[in-house]
UniProtKB/TrEMBL annotation:
It comes from the Bacteria. Keywords: Transferase. This is CaiB/BaiF CoA transferase family protein. GO terms for molecular function: transferase activity. Pfam families: CoA_transf_3. The lineage of its organism: Bacteria, Pseudomonadati, Pseudomonadota, Betaproteobacteria, Burkholderiales. The keyword Transcription does not apply.
Length: 400
């Protein structure tokens, strides 16, 4: 049971069947705020994320973040005995998370209607490439494909050049966060309206599309197709990245009064006082001229000098941070966004802190990421299985 009752999700039991990014990120987020998360992994290699990117002691350091505050049950869901164990677990759970291809749960005899017949209050979060319905539902989908279909990838490029990745798996993460919102909404509804659960259907491309701002209304009203604009913010000026002696700064001088202060700071009161530049529409018409003026001012200066001057002028500006910049930044440290987290291999890693920050019931790291199947026996004993039954499952390879 959860031993941190001050956390907002204390007492909530979550079964996570997903792997890699979207489903497990949703489980991580719930776990950070006190939910008991039991992660079911296939015996053998477990979740492939254990072996992604940079490894330490044979395990991905990404895994240490994604699977903190979770317990690991290595269970073969392709076997009937494994499916029986899963049903027993789910019968006592509040939330089930899965991010398999549509139809996978049904093929295992774990269709939502069957599970909710066992547990009417069960909330099921299903994350997939294209959703559980529609003509594309059976297509395989990853986050990068969702980013493309959702409209994001088309915009992440310099004009005329190849669209590029954002740099992280943003499609998966956005889907996970939408899924967490859905779980919290469903929990509220369950409490307020008689205890019934429901199914939450999140498609990767829809989560991305939901964040695309005015993309479709502009097409609807004007037939306008937004095109790549590099580091600029199309239709809003000035807002861009500008070169310095030793790097780049982002400057957002697009508010009317901010623009005047920015022009004073760079010695261009002629632009700051120009009547046709007093509002955004006028500035957009002359954006190339404004960007050139700002770039001419930043280029001979260091990033530090530019930021000091613009901070003094109350103009929003910032450095383009690397991992080193983040790790050494005092603001990150002051807000507990860089946590020292012990691993079960005896290391200590610096990992991202908890977001969002709640004043009365903050989240936290209660347990480091588990080894594969580390909690299998304990979870099965809590279900009421005897030592002999557990040994038999282990001998047949159903449990590791």
């Amino acid at each position: 049971m959860n031993i941190f009752p001050s956390t907002p999700l204390a007492g909530l039991r979550v079964i996570e069947m997903g792997q890699l990014i979207a489903g497990p990120f949703a489980g991580k987020t719930l776990g950070d705020f006190g939910a008991e998360v039991i992660k079911i992994e296939p015996p053998g290699a477990g979740d492939p994320l254990r072996n992604w990117r940079l490894l330490r002691h044979g395990t991905s350091v990404w895994w240490q973040v994604q699977s903190r505050n979770k317990r690991s049950l290595a269970l073969d869901l392709r076997a009937a005995e494994g499916q029986d164990v899963a049903r027993r677990l789910i019968a006592e759970a509040d939330v089930l998370i899965e991010n398999f291809k549509p139809g996978t749960l049904e093929g295992w005899g774990l269709a939502p209607e069957r599970l909710q017949a066992l547990n009417p209050g069960l909330i099921i979060l299903r994350i997939s490439g294209y959703g559980q319905t529609g003509p594309y539902r059976d297509r395989p989908g990853f986050g990068v494909v969702g980013e493309a279909m959702g409209g994001l990838r088309h915009l992440t490029a310099e004009p005329g050049r190849v669209p590029v990745r954002v740099g992280v798996s943003i499609g998966d993460t956005l889907a996970a966060l939408h899924g967490v919102i859905g779980v919290l909404l469903a929990l509220h509804h369950r409490t307020a309206h008689g205890g019934a659960g429901q199914v939450i259907d999140v498609a990767l491309h829809e989560a991305v599309f939901n964040c695309m701002e005015s993309l479709i209304p502009e097409y609807s009203a004007f037939g306008a197709v937004r095109e790549p604009a590099g580091s600029a913010l199309p239709g809003i000026a000035p807002s861009n990245a500008y070169p310095c002696q030793d790097g780049w700064v982002l400057v957002a001088g697009n508010g009317d009064s901010i623009f005047k202060r920015l022009m004073t700071a760079i010695g261009r009161d002629d632009l700051g006082g120009a009547p046709d530049l007093a509002d955004n529409a006028g500035r957009v018409a002359r954006v190339a001229e404004i960007d050139a003026a700002i770039g001419a001012w930043t280029q001979p200066r260091t990033v530090r000098a530019v930021l000091d001057a613009l901070t003094a002028a109350r103009v929003p500006a910032g450095k383009v941070y690397t991992a080193r910049d983040i790790a050494e930044d005092p603001h990150y440290q002051a807000r507990d966004m860089l946590l020292a987290q012990a691993t079960r291999d005896g290391d200590t890693l610096t990992v991202p802190g908890i977001v969002p920050k709640l004043s009365a019931t903050p989240g936290g790291v209660r347990a480091s990421a588990p080894h594969l199947g580390e909690d299998s026996e304990a979870v099965l004993r809590e279900l009421g299985l005897s030592a002999e039954q557990i040994a038999a499952l282990r001998q047949r390879g159903i449990v590791q």
